[in-house]
Write a structure and sequence with these properties.
The complex is a heterodimer of chains A (218) and B (208). By secondary structure, chain A is an all-alpha fold. Chain A is built from nine helices and no strands. The radius of gyration of chain B is 18 Å and the shape is globular.
C-alpha cells in the first residue's frame, strides 16, 4: 500500500500538472476576487471566509477526475483490482495521495492568501484548522465521485455535478468555522460537525467507491 | 494445485457470448485458447481473473493465484522500466525485479522512462510484470502483440520456465509461440447458441 502511495506521489510530481494545478487555481481566486470586489477592506473581511473555502473546494474539484481515470486508461486499475491489495485500500490510498497533493498544500497556502482578502487576525488559526479538518473529506468524497464515473469518456462534467452537492455540508460548516473564528466567537459546534463529516466520509466512502469501481470494471 | 472451469458462461455488454465452457488445467501445463475475433476470449479471461461475474457455471482456483495480462500493460509513462516493475513487485510483496528484467531482456533499458520505449519494449515490460507477481496461474491475452520474432521466442522460453516451476498459463493467441506441448482449446463450439440478454435475469445488471 505504501508502494501505491509513493507511486502516486511520484507521478503527481513528475507529471507536473497534478501538483501545482489546484494551488495555482486557489492563488488565482484569492488574487482576482479583491480586484473584482474592490478595495473596501470591510467588505473583503466579511466575504474572506466564504471565498477562501469556495476557492479551496473548487481547486480540489479540478484534479478529481485524474484519481482513477489515468489508471483506468492504461490498464493499471484492472491489475490493481486483481492484486493482493483490497480495492477499498486502493481507494483510501489514492484519496490520501490526492489530499497530500492538493488538500495539504491548499491548507498551508491559505493563511498567506488570506492576507490578500483581509481576513481578520483571529480567523487565521481557524482557517488552517477548518481546512485541515475539512479537506480530507473533499478528497474522499471526490474519490467516490471519480470511482462512479471511471470509464466514462470525458466524465469530468458528470463528476463535478455528482460531487458538488456532496461537498455542500463541508463547505457550509468549514466557512462557518472561519466566519465565527474571525469574529472571535465560539467555533466548537461547526468544527465538530465538520470533523464528523470528514470522519464519516473517510470511514464509509472507500467501501462505496470500491463497489462502484467493481461495477465499472465489468 | 489446479484450475477447474465447469460449464462456464460469460457475457459481454449484457450479451452471453460463450456458454458451456469447461476445462481442467494441472500444474505445469498450458492451454492455448483459439477462436475468431469477437468469440469472447478476452471476456473469458477477464471472468476467470474475477474482473466480471460469470453468468453461469463455476471457476475453482486457489485464492490469489491468478494474474492477468491484458491488452493494456498498466505502465506509467513517467516512471522508468525499473520503477514500473518495482512498483508491481512491491504491490505483490515479492522481489525479483532484476531477475525479471534479465529474463525479458530489459536490463539495458532499466533507467529509460516507459514513455520512451518502443511498442515491443513496452510489451516486454508488461510481460515482465508477470514474473514479479509471484502468482502461479498466468492469464495472457494476446501476449505477443507487437513483439518481434526473437522476443516471441524469448517469451515462449519464459512461459516454459514458468510451467517447469509448477506454474500454469492460459493463453489467448493466434500465433505459434513455440509451446508445442500446450493443449489447444478452440472456443468456436462454445459460442452461445441463443445470445439472450443477461440483463433479463438480474435486477442488478440493469445498473451495471
Amino acid at each position: 500500500m505504501i508502494a501505491l502511495l509513493i507511486r502516486d506521489l511520484r507521478l503527481a510530481i513528475r507529471a507536473g500538472g497534478g501538483f501545482g494545478l489546484g494551488l495555482a487555481f486557489f492563488l488565482l481566486v484569492a488574487v482576482l476576487v479583491p480586484l473584482g470586489v474592490g478595495p473596501d477592506s470591510s467588505v473583503l473581511a466579511k466575504i474572506a471566509p466564504g471565498i477562501l473555502w469556495v476557492g479551496a473546494l473548487l481547486s480540489c474539484l479540478l484534479s478529481l477526475d485524474r484519481i482513477f481515470a489515468l489508471d483506468f486508461e492504461d490498464g493499471s486499475l484492472d491489475l490493481l483490482a486483481t492484486s493482493p491489495i483490497p480495492l477499498e485500500g486502493v481507494v483510501a490510498i489514492k484519496a490520501l495521495a490526492h489530499w497530500l497533493v492538493t488538500g495539504l498544500p491548499l491548507t498551508l497556502a491559505a493563511p498567506v492568501l488570506a492576507v490578500l482578502l483581509n481576513l481578520p487576525t483571529p480567523g487565521y488559526v481557524w482557517l488552517v484548522a477548518s481546512l485541515t479538518a475539512g479537506t480530507p473529506a473533499l478528497s474522499v468524497i471526490g474519490a467516490f465521485g471519480a470511482a462512479l464515473t471511471v470509464g466514462i469518456k470525458r466524465g469530468g462534467l458528470l463528476l463535478s455535478l455528482l460531487v458538488l452537492p456532496l461537498y455542500v455540508p463541508t463547505l457550509i460548516f468549514g466557512a462557518e468555522v472561519v466566519k465565527r473564528g474571525a469574529l472571535a466567537m465560539e467555533v466548537g459546534v461547526p468544527l465538530l460537525l465538520l470533523s464528523g463529516i470528514t470522519a464519516g466520509a473517510v470511514a464509509l466512502l472507500p467501501f462505496a467507491a470500491a463497489a462502484a469501481i467493481r461495477v465499472n470494471l465489468r | 494445485m489446479e484450475l477447474v472451469v465447469e460449464n462456464l458462461a460469460v457475457a459481454r455488454g449484457g450479451l452471453t457470448v460463450l456458454e458451456g465452457v469447461g476445462f481442467w488445467l494441472a500444474a505445469g501445463r498450458a492451454l492455448i485458447l483459439r477462436g475468431p475475433n469477437g468469440i469472447g476470449k478476452t471476456t473469458l479471461l477477464r471472468t476467470l481473473a474475477g474482473l466480471q461475474p460469470e453468468v453461469a457455471g463455476s471457476v475453482s482456483a486457489p485464492p490469489e493465484s491468478l494474474t492477468y495480462a491484458a491488452h493494456a500493460d498498466g505502465l506509467k509513462a513517467v516512471l522508468t522500466v525499473e520503477e514500473n516493475l518495482a512498483f508491481w513487485a512491491a504491490i505483490h510483496g515479492v522481489g525479483g525485479v532484476k531477475d525479471a528484467m534479465a529474463q525479458m531482456n530489459l536490463t539495458d533499458l532499466r533507467a529509460r522512462r516507459a514513455a520512451n520505449l518502443s511498442a515491443g519494449q513496452k510489451r516486454r515490460l508488461g510481460l515482465a510484470r508477470l514474473l514479479v507477481t509471484g502468482r502461479p496461474v498466468w492469464l495472457l491475452d494476446e501476449p505477443t502483440v507487437s513483439l518481434d520474432v526473437a522476443s516471441v521466442a524469448l517469451f515462449g522460453a519464459v512461459v516454459r520456465a514458468h510451467l517447469a516451476g509448477g506454474g500454469m498459463a492460459l493463453i489467448a493467441t493466434h500465433i505459434d509461440m513455440g509451446l508445442s506441448e500446450a493443449a489447444v482449446l478452440d472456443l468456436a463450439p462454445f459460442k452461445a447458441k441463443t445470445p439472450m440478454s443477461a440483463g433479463a435475469s438480474g435486477f442488478d445488471e440493469a445498473f451495471a
